[in-house]
Amino acid sequence: xxxxxxxxxxxxxxxxxAVQSVMPDSAWAQTYTVLDGGTFSGNVPANPADGSTIDLxxxxxxxxxxxxxxxxxxxxxxxxxxxESVVAIDSTVLGTNGTALFTNTTTxxxxxxxxxxxxxxxxxxxxxxxxVITSSSGVTINGSDVTFSDNKAGRSGGALIVRKLATAxxxxxxxxxxxxxxxxxxxxxxxxxxxxxxxxIVIGNGAGAILVQNNxxxxxxxxxxxxxxxxxxISAGTTSTNTTPSTLTIxxxxxxxxxxxxxxxxxxxxxxxxxxxxxxxISSGAVELSGNSVSGSSGVVTSSVYGGAIGVGFGSELIxxxxxxxxxxxxxxxxTATATTGAVQAxxxxxxxxxxxxxxxxxxxxxxxxxAITPGLAGGGALYSGRGAVTLTGSEIVLSDNxxxxxxxx
Length: 410
Hints:
- The chain is mainly beta and about 400 residues long.
- The longest helix has 20 residues, at about 1-20.
- Strand 46 and strand 47 form a beta hairpin.
- It contains 1 helix and 47 strands.
- It has a 22-stranded parallel sheet that branches.
């Protein structure tokens, strides 16, 4: 009898190990615990039910299971340890050449709730789009502090993408968080960090700091989206129609957009930010856009670049840029165009809009050292509006050393 009991005990242990190696899905909301230094594999199912929670119990975790996001009202909650939890994405096991860590291929919108401390998603590498989240309908992220860093995509949206299905009710991407950081994300085509094909992007709730730094997209070298390239860091609504509200809104206690870059072929718009239907930046504190760049590659028939930091609109549309802050700083942004033959132009060293540009500050507006450089047609070393007014309101306004193809001008 004792030997039979030992056999049954061994068999039970083997069955338990087999069950734990692949986490089963559940029809009911569950909490899935990932210990410090642990992995999603064996702990988080591929299809968690609506209202489920991934509980990160330590400083680090490895995301190595592609998780299908639930489409219900409860969404998926990711609870961070006190202070910070870093989710390092192991893309080598997420499908062929890497897919997103979180996916949604339905027409239903998805919700991700971030609780606890700071959650950082880093190191993802997707063969096509969005290394952290890729969705075919709207995405809303709720939380306090979130960072997306060092993620890359082989096409668009280095960290997150919403490529809307025609039948999906929403193509919007909303990051409703106090503090949002997007750093060192890259895409081979456009939207180095964030991309929507046909929807709005909203970042921040006004309570904290928004940082967008050192994101990039290089469509010139990797021409995977034709001849129209947009948004070194953020691109909203490249395929939207006139009736689609494909805008970008950033709302923070401070907004800092630094060192982002976009390189493309022929039509290249927005070194840091592009939005088809307009950009609005709102801050109770400082707004800074510095060191961003947009450039058109040499060796092509035409090269037209627009907006070293921000570019909006398309064709004859009258699309605005509006920035409101305590102070507004635009420094050392550049738009550079080169081509071997044909039309060459660089417009708006810092900001380009087809419609109005409105900057309103309680304190100082400082636009210095911005450049639009080209052997051909150039306009607006700092600011350029195609068919609208440029209005600056502040207690002090400084326009200095802005450069247009060899001459200093606004």
